[in-house]
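Q: Hi! First time doing this. I have a protein sequence and I read that you can turn it into a structure. Is that right? Here it is:
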Amino acid sequence: MFLDESADDVREWAEGISFPVLLDREHLLADLYAVSNVPTVVWIDADGSIARPNSSEVGNDMFVDFTGVTPDEHMQQVRDWVREGTVPADADYEVEDLTDDEIAGRLAFRLAAHHRRNGDEARAAEWFATAGQLAPMDFTIRRAAMPLQGVDPFGEQFFELFGAWQEAGSPYHGVPRN
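A: Yes, that's right. Below is the predicted 3D structure, encoded as structure tokens:
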């Protein structure tokens, strides 16, 4: 699932993927599963049940220098689940619900995106700012807002956000990374 604005925004990231890719431009699934950071993985079995809740995992080594996280352990866990039906011990982790402020921040983000799509950049900027104030550590809105406002999502503002997130204890709705 990608939380970007258009298929063109994600096309290069989806090249070579042999399964369906969902473009969640309204962030509906992000809200449903309380996704507050990307990348996030949710294991859903063939019956549509959650086999393992939100976890911040990566699928390749692209950001290992930045995050220090490799995909090796997670990919082995996925293989074990697919081949043997075993899930990690943290599969029963209970994900915290979004707070009222986080929900309001996501609604403000949707209003901002709506105004932007309709050409009202001033109103969009107001709602993007409100969203950021309500949910300052929610990457699904803070980082997603960056390219919609002409800001490099891997630039200086992102690294400032990332530093603030780390200083806040790396808050995340999902299985904590040990």
